């Protein structure tokens, strides 16, 4: 999500305690004055002074479905905005670890449908359509991945990776 904005509009109505852009590291990364975190309900309108703070906001209880729609954008003093690729902080994880586990899930859903349980046909429809042949349902279920935010224990490593990536982006010609 690239948003055309400038430093003054991001920092509007913030006092010295609300944004500490002056605490960013020197060098090339000093070209970044703020970060924004976006979740599905845009619950973080205030800028963050660094990537870690934006990431921690997405990992917080306040965030709404950040694993589905989370974004972090860096705002540069020259007017550019740089979207941090979600691959840094959102991971895909297979829903089922084995084919047998997927088969069991399909079988359980089919039995619930046969028993006439309400909404059984809708259960897991994003994983596999109940009207498809069983083999296709199993293949679809095996191919499905859940999206998860990185665990906070990994934040140091993620922050370092993003800092290196941002350096490359800032040093590249516009």
List descriptors:
174 residues, alpha+beta, 2 domains, 6 helices, 5 strands
H/I helix tally: 6
| Computed structural class | alpha+beta
**SSE succession:** HEHHEEEHHEH
Question: How many domains would you count in the coordinates?
Answer: 2
Mean pLDDT across all amino acids: 87
| Residues in helices, as a percent range | 25-40%
What would your notes on this structure say?
The protein is an alpha+beta fold and 174 residues long. It has two domains: 104 residues, no CATH class; 48 residues, no CATH class. Helices cover 35% and strands 16% of the residues. It contains six helices and five strands. A three-stranded antiparallel beta sheet has the order 1-2-3. Strand 2 and strand 3 form a beta hairpin. Helix 2 packs across helix 6 and helix 4 crosses helix 5. The longest helix is centred in the C-terminal third of the chain and has 17 residues. It is elongated and about 65 Å long.
Quick gist of this model?
The protein is α+β, with helices and mostly antiparallel strands and 174 residues long.
Write the layout of secondary structure elements.
Blueprint: H1 7-11, E1 32-38, H2 51-59, H3 66-69, E2 71-76, E3 81-84, E4 90-94, H4 99-114, H5 134-143, E5 145-149, H6 155-171
Antiparallel strand pairs: 1-2, 2-3, 4-5
Helix pairs in contact: 2-6, 4-5
């Amino acid at each position: 999500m690239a948003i055309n904005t400038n430093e003054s509009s991001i920092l509007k109505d913030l006092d010295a305690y609300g944004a500490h852009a002056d605490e960013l590291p020197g060098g090339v990364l000093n070209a970044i004055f703020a970060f924004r975190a976006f979740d599905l309900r845009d619950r973080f309108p205030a800028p963050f002074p660094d990537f870690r703070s934006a990431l921690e906001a997405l990992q917080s209880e306040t965030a709404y479905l950040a694993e589905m729609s989370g974004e972090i954008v860096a705002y540069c003093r020259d007017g550019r905005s740089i979207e941090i690729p979600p691959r840094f902080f959102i991971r895909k994880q297979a829903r089922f670890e084995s084919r047998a586990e997927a088969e069991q899930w399909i079988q359980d859903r089919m039995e619930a449908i046969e028993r006439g349980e309400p909404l059984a046909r809708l259960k897991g429809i994003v994983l596999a359509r109940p009207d498809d042949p069983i083999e296709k349902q199993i293949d679809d279920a095996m191919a499905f991945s859940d999206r998860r935010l990185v665990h906070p224990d990994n934040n140091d490593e993620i922050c370092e990776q993003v800092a290196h990536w941002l350096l490359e982006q800032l040093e590249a010609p516009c």
